[in-house]
């Protein structure tokens, strides 16, 4: 038997425009995680993010298919 665990995550597209209760809304929808991206050179934002969240150590690569 093969089982699949389905978890819901919320990706924040614009951290500056999320409502203050975004975390509560995500929990109400049974989401288990909030996540977002930032530019590698945005050190000011990263200081805040390091304080409120964990950095997973993942590097994202993209390849254009056009």
TrEMBL record:
Q: In terms of domain of life, where is this protein from?
A: Bacteria
According to UniProt, the name of this protein is Uncharacterized protein
What organism is the protein native to? Acinetobacter kyonggiensis
């Amino acid at each position: 038997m093969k089982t699949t665990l389905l978890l819901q995550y919320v990706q924040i597209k614009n951290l500056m425009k999320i409502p203050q209760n975004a975390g509560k809304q995500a929990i109400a929808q049974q989401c288990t995680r909030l996540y977002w991206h930032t530019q590698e050179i945005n050190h000011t934002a990263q200081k805040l993010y390091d304080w409120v969240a964990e950095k997973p150590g993942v590097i994202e690569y993209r390849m254009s298919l056009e």
